[in-house]
Structures are given as structure tokens and as C-alpha cells.
Amino acid sequence: ACHGPDGNSTIADFPKLAGQNEDYLSHSLKAYKTKARTNVIMNGQAANLTDQDIANLAAFYAGQKGLSIKR
Predict the structure, then answer these.
(1) What residues have CB less than 8 Å from 37, skipping those under 6 apart?
(2) Residue 38 in contact with residue 47, Cβ under 8 Å?
(3) Which of 27, 56, 61, 64 is spaced 20 to 30 A from 50 at the CA atom?
């Protein structure tokens, strides 16, 4: 709910995940799961994710239209 169903959050306090780099998303979720990166909400959300869940979420949000890199 915080980041929006497609990763395009409409709330300034929550970053947009859509189009973000898949490796970055995966790394971030793993860091929240192990509490190497701390945020009360995200630590709780990531606590029970499997490696496959994390890979699936990262791939889903990375594949959404949102952020883009201008070259």
C-alpha cells in the first residue's frame, strides 16, 4: 500500500519502486530482512520473505513503468 500497487507511490514519504534496478531492489529487501538496513515497517514486511519472494518482487517492480534513465 505504501509504494502503490505498481510501485508508483503517490505519497512523497514513500519512494517509487517502479522501474528501479532489479539488483538494487533485491539487495534492499535482503538488507531489510536481515536488519542490515533498518526501517520498522520494511523490516517487518521483509522478515518472512523467501529468496524466491524477494526475486519475484524485485523483478515485478523493476519491470513496471516508472523510473527511467536518461542517456
Answers:
(1) 28, 31
(2) no
(3) 64
Question: CA-to-CA distance for 62 and 19, rounded, in angstroms?
Answer: 4
Amino acid at 42: M
Place of cell 512523497: 12
- In this prediction, residue 70 carries a pLDDT of 62
Residues 6+ apart with CB under 8 A from 3: 9, 14, 15, 16, 17, 61
Name, in order, each residue with C-beta under 8 angstroms of 4's C-beta and a sequence gap of 6 or more: 10, 16, 18
The phi, psi pair for 45, rounded to 5°, reads -65, -40
The pTM assigned to this predicted structure is 0.87
